[in-house]
Structures are given as structure tokens and as C-alpha cells.
Design brief:
- 49% of the residues lie in helices and 16% in strands.
- With 303 residues, it is of the alpha/beta class.
- The strands form five sheets. Strands 2-1-3 form a three-stranded parallel sheet. It has a two-stranded parallel ribbon with strand order 4-7. A two-stranded antiparallel sheet has the order 5-6.
Length: 303
């Protein structure tokens, strides 16, 4: 968030030279208690700033403050942001939209065509942020289905995590190089790539732990420590829930387009193909109902 405030400050400084004063009147809200606290820590420790930032401070330009920047702490202040009808910029968390005040802001603004949602960080698979970024048309927030009518944008380069080259530079800076590096916290393709890079460039052995894998580090040795029992069922249930949400988001728009197409002079071959596809869908739905009914009957008998 501090990077974004810093860049917005530079933009406002340049923009103030133009004749368009309307843009300068748009308030920017930082609505995240943790972000507010972190920004205050930055402001209290200017001795930690780099040379460019200190130059800005010396000419009276606070890099973490600018016209119309507002910080909100209380829940009531956060609610008031969505009650006002003025144009505004809202910086909020969590970054992947899984929790925090951002979910309330999405609930109030995702359905508005005049809104824009800008992602400035990585969105992991399965998160609300990833589903929105990937183009889902309907998402569930606080149990309510919300249409995604806002424009969705993504800005790369603001991640708080080090990239591949940053990690390599960091490991190179060690006086005493590790004998082995465990590569975690990343998707499969990314972890495999950074693991290969470390082994080829730094000549250090790596290991990518699997889910549930336990290891024992004794001195300079890494020994297998068995496996932890993982509740796979919960993962399967999450995948089913995600698939249901995806189907719900594409089901109605597809049938709307289907209605337009069948009324738009489709030839007999295309109509026959559509009819067969609909029969397949109907059969699959009936099969699902049979599975659900059998499960209910089984649970009833167990009681």
C-alpha cells in the first residue's frame, strides 16, 4: 500500500501543474487498519528512507501524503465511504479479497458499471480475487450473489514479495551459503522454476516439500519424518463449491445467448447440435440428483 501511496503522490505532484482540477478533488481513502498503522511507522522513521525519498522530504513533499489522502480506522468511518456518492479511490485489504474491509467495498461496488477494480498483487487460485480477475460474472460475498459489472484491471510490479531475481540476489548475499534450500509458498510452476534456478546458478541443493510431508533437520542432515494426515475431503468440498459458483456465473448468461441465437435464424444442423447438448446437460443434472438422493437416503437409514 505504501508503494501505491508513493506513486500516487508523484502523480498528484505532476498533475497539479495541469488545468484539470476535477481530478485533484477526488478523495483517496486508505481503508485498512493494518495499512494505516504500517504507514504511520514509515512516517515516524524517515531515517530509513532512501536518497530519492529524502530529497522529496527536503523540498517539502511528503511522499506518503498528498492532497485528499484520507486514512480510516474505525468501522463507522469505513461504512461511510460506501454511503457517499462522490467519486473516490479506495485502497483496502486483504489483497486477495479473502477477508477484511475489501469484501464490503466489493459488495457495494462490483455491481456498478461505473466502478473499476484494480488488482496490484498476486491472486492465488481459489481466492475471491482470482475468480474476479479471471472473469467470473457472478461471485458470492457474505452469502449474497453479486454481479460483476465493474471494469477489472491488473497492475503488475507492486507485489510485496520478492521476485525470482530478488530471491537469487538475497541468497547470493549470504556470507555462509546454506547447504539446502526448501522452496515453499508458491504455485507448482513457480516453485519448480526458482528451484531449478537456485541449483543451476548457485549450486545449492533444493527441495520442494509436498503437502503433508514432514522433515527432520538434524545438524547438517535432512531426514524424512513421515507424513501428516491431511483432510483431503475438505479440499474436494472446496473444489466442488468453487465449481458450483463458476457454473452459476456462466449458466444464466449462456442460456440468454442461447435464446438469442435460436431466435436469430440458426440452421437445422446447429439447432440439432444445441438440442443434443441440452439433452446431455439434462441427463447430467438428473444423474446429480440421483447421487444427492441416494446420499440423503443413506444418511436417513443410518439414523
Amino acid at each position: 500500500a505504501q508503494d501505491i501511496i508513493y506513486e500516487l503522490n508523484k502523480y498528484y505532484t505532476e498533475y497539479i501543474k495541469t488545468e484539470d482540477q476535477d481530478f485533484l478533488s477526488v478523495p483517496v481513502y486508505v481503508d485498512s487498519p493494518l495499512t494505516v498503522s504500517a504507514t504511520e511507522i514509515f512516517l515516524r522513521n524517515p531515517d530509513c528512507f532512501d536518497e530519492d525519498t529524502l530529497k522529496l522530504i527536503n523540498i517539502g513533499n511528503n511522499p506518503l501524503d498528498f492532497r485528499n489522502l484520507k486514512f480510516t480506522r474505525s468501522v463507522e468511518e469505513s461504512k461511510q465511504i460506501n454511503f457517499s456518492k462522490e467519486s473516490k479511490v479506495i485502497i483496502s485489504a486483504s489483497g486477495m479479497c479473502t477477508a477484511g474491509r475489501i469484501k464490503h467495498h466489493l459488495k457495494h461496488n462490483l455491481w456498478r458499471k461505473e466502478s473499476s477494480i484494480v488488482f496490484v498483487g498476486y491472486q492465488a487460485n481459489g481466492t475471491l480475487g482470482r475468480r474476479i480477475k479471471d472473469g467470473e460474472k457472478v461471485v458470492k460475498i457474505f452469502g449474497e450473489e453479486i454481479q460483476v459489472n465493474a471494469e477489472i484491471h491488473s497492475l503488475e510490479g507492486f507485489s510485496g514479495h520478492a521476485d525470482r531475481e530478488g530471491i537469487i540476489r538475497w541468497v547470493k548475499s549470504f556470507k555462509n551459503k546454506p547447504k539446502k534450500i526448501f522452496v515453499v509458498h508458491g504455485e507448482e510452476e513457480a516453485t519448480e522454476e526458482i528451484s531449478r534456478k537456485i541449483e543451476e546458478e548457485l549450486k545449492i541443493k533444493t527441495h520442494i516439500p509436498e503437502l503433508g510431508e514432514a522433515l527432520s533437520i538434524e545438524g547438517e542432515s535432512v531426514l524424512p519424518g513421515g507424513r501428516l494426515e491431511i483432510d483431503r475431503r475438505s479440499k474436494e468440498l472446496r473444489e466442488i463449491e468453487e465449481n458450483i459458483e463458476k457454473l452459476k456465473s456462466i449458466f444464466w448468461p449462456t442460456f440468454q445467448r442461447l435464446g438469442y441465437r435460436t431466435n436469430d435464424g440458426a440452421d437445422s444442423g446447429e439447432l440439432n447440435n444445441i438440442k443434443n447438448k441440452l439433452i446431455d446437460i439434462q441427463k447430467n443434472i438428473l444423474d446429480l440428483n440421483m447421487i444427492i438422493t441416494k446420499r440423503k437416503d443413506k444418511k436417513g437409514n443410518e439414523k
